[in-house]
Amino acid sequence: MKFTTPIAGLLALGAATSASPLPSQLSFNSAQYTDAPLSLFSSIYEASRDILTPRLVQTAPDAEPFWALPQYLRWRGVRFMDVTDHLELGTTYTLAHFTAAAQQGHDAGLFPKKMSYQSKVRSVHELLTEDGPRSNIAKFSSFYTRYYKSDTGKQSQQWLLGKVREITSVDDSITVDEFKHPWGQNSIIAHIPATNQSAAEQNGMLIVGAHQDSVNLIWPYFRAPGADDDGSGTVTQLEALRALLEAGWRPETSDVEFHWYSAEEGGLLGSQAVAEDYAKRGVNVKAMNQVDMSAFVKKDVKPAIGIVTDKGRVETGLTEFNRKLVTEYLDIPYVDTAIGAAGSDHESWTKVGIPAAFCIGELRRAPAVLAMSIH
Ligand SMILES: *[C@@H]1O[C@H](CO)[C@@H](O)[C@H](O)[C@H]1NC(C)=O
Ligand SMILES: [Zn+2]
Which of 38, 65, 170, 246 is 20 to 30 Å from 45 by CA-CA measure? Predict the structure, then answer.
């Protein structure tokens, strides 16, 4: 194919560029797409409709919302929360008991100061494999795009749902549900009940999250393998859950949920819908931890865990706990990092007043997911 017209050129550019290029460490044939791309015309039509519809957006949980074209923001590299349908999130709908602590960023003393359960955590680490995540990420990024409004985005979600069901089938008490969204790609929630329910009711639930969707930043419906963003968090979570269950782990004093959100790239739409539902139902949530982009390390950069520290976006006590996990369990260090923009789905939880934290970078051993689930 020759690229002689602007639109063909744009197609070529779109095909070559994506929100998240394939990590150099992962080798597989990315040309083997599971499904053919949408036709050029329907792709342009759908994307144009998206592009010409202004949305009310926000760039931080407490920032002033403004009207903008999401695609224009993507072109400019501005990350945003689309609050058009969620104006009451954090006001009418809130789980307010921690709001002050979360927003002022002071350590409310909710999280362990010292590590415990080390031998249990290490025995789970022994069961982690690289092969599982590698083959899952190869499959997951072979969908042409996981854009939340696309057909292949629905298909990738169904594939992921099957994987979560397969992994959790070892225990009937674990439930796996689709959290339905109007755009078609649903969020997925695996619920692992605590063995002591009276303790669990007092303590509140622990949530670990990643987002399943991807987007091509140039043109939403173009190729977007999203292996790193956030195929990596998605499969990391799968592997963590698989290893935990293989080790016979069941949470004792808190229910634990694993969330795979839809439409993070649409402006945290999936996680906002879930957080709003939990707030409406008054679900007691203790904490939320997000993992986004954990596979890719730039050439000549020393691998490290990025601990996101942005004030007003993450809770400092949980963030400090994540630092301690890295120091205790990993051979690589952490680096504090500020993103300064709508980073990922944890911000939907920050907005309803739940202590939330965010790890980014190379999480070789998924410490945050594992150890937080055990505590
Ligand atoms: C369950 O938790 C409650 C509240 O923390 C505690 O009083 C009780 O002893 C626990 N039950 C068992 C069987 O451990
Ligand atoms: Zn992401």
Answer: 65
Tokens read off for 284: 């007691």
Q: Is the pLDDT of residue 107 over 70?
A: no
* The CA-based dihedral angle spanning residues 175, 176, 181, 183, taken in that order and rounded to the nearest 10 degrees: -170
Q: Is the CB of 199 under 6 A from ligand 1?
A: yes
Q: Which residues contact 48 (CB under 8 A, 6 or more apart)?
A: none
pTM, two decimals, is 0.84
Ligand 1 pocket residue status of 198, Cβ below 6 Å: yes
Ligand whose nearest atom lies closest to the CA of 252: 1
- Identify the CA nearest to 199 among candidates 73, 112, 284, 302: 284
Backbone angles phi, psi at 125, to 5 degrees: -55, -35
Pick the residue whose CA is nearest to atom 11 on ligand 1. 196
- Condensed to tens digits (0 to 9), the pLDDT of residues 156-200 reads 999 999 999 999 999 999 999 999 999 999 999 999 999 999 999
Contact 359, 291 (CB under 8 A): yes
- Cβ atoms of residues 214 and 147 within 8 Å: yes
